[in-house]
Amino acid sequence: MNLAKEIIGWLAFTTSSLMLVPQVLKVIKTKKTESVSLVMFIFAVTNYILWTVYGFLKNSPQIYIANILAFTSSAIILGYIIYNGVKKRKEKQIHKTKEVNNLGN
Amino acid sequence: MNLAKEIIGWLAFTTSSLMLVPQVLKVIKTKKTESVSLVMFIFAVTNYILWTVYGFLKNSPQIYIANILAFTSSAIILGYIIYNGVKKRKEKQIHKTKEVNNLGN
């Protein structure tokens, strides 16, 4: 029984640390994040910080290594979502000022 | 020290089980999944199944409850990604047959 627990634990550790990598690669490649949830990745970053601290408190490398990797991935994705959001807002602002100027002329 | 571990453990449990909910709500609302990674959610579903089994083997409700919730959320998102992928392929197919027919006329 213990062996099963060990194997599943290591498998779960591997999928946990790699899970976000495909999303990171997709966001870096496409630069697109419209359908990715900002709130989810704020939760995700918080979640992985908590599990990392928990891993250190429990002195479990399995937990804190997986969660440092997952934290890094989610922080990169969150960065892209925020960057795209700011960019979109600026474009809207420029668009509005152009409209106002056109009305003025 | 144990109290800190307990508190952080419960906080991490909460963010783990709720983390995917904003993405589920966004996908259900917008029906859009272009920038969401299919491979990530295949990993995620696998990941949460593994952690759920691990939680049962360790007899830890904290682990298996959080991961059953996260499994449900990731399965819903994966369903939408696959549904949208199939729909897109069908539309492409229809578009192609129309083009071929037009060439034929």
How many DSSP E strands of chain A?
Answer: 0
Q: N-to-C terminal Cα separation of chain A, in Å?
A: 79 Å
Helix run count of chain A: 4
Largest interface, with counts of residues having CB < 8 Å to the other chain, equals: A-B, 38 and 38 residues
CATH class of chain A: Mainly Alpha
| Helix amount of chain A | over 70%
Oligomer: homodimer
- CATH domain fold name of chain A: Monooxygenase
Mean pLDDT reading of chain A: 91
Query: In CATH terms, what is the architecture of chain A?
Result: Up-down Bundle
Low-confidence stretches of chain A: none
Strand content of chain A: under 5%
Structural class of chain A: mainly alpha
Largest sheet of chain A: none
Rg for CA atoms of chain A: 20 Å
Overall 3D shape of chain A: elongated
Give the ordered list of helices and strands of chain A.
HHHH
Whole-number tally of structural domains of chain A: 1
Describe the structure.
2 copies of one chain form a homodimer. By secondary structure, chain A is mostly helical. The first copy, chain A, is 87% helix and 0% strand. Chain A starts with a helix and ends with a helix. The longest helix of chain A has 44 residues, at 61-104. Chain A has a single domain (2-104), classed as Monooxygenase (Up-down Bundle), CATH 1.20.1280. At the A-B interface, helix 1, helix 2 and helix 3 of A face helix 1, helix 2 and helix 3 of B.
Tags for this entry?
homodimer; 105 residues; mainly alpha; Monooxygenase; 4 helices; 0% strand; elongated
